[in-house]
Amino acid sequence: MEGIDWETVPPLLGYNKIQLKKSATLLATVGDGDVLMAAGDYFSGRNFVFASDPSPHWGINFMSWKYYNTLWVQVVKWLAKAL
Fold it and tell me: What is the pLDDT of residue 29?
């Protein structure tokens, strides 16, 4: 999440309501404090959840965000333990 200006996130058109696991780290919220992004470790691996849609359905505005590519590159590198 380094180098990303979260104050500039465009509105999402929808998201799934999910509950944060006790072992997860909350990364971002949406709406009235609902989980948008969370991450954690699972045995020797890692997991990440994004509760909306990174494609045009709910994420059409999100896809044009200046930090869209940066976010997903960082997520994939973190999941692959390359960060």
Answer: 94
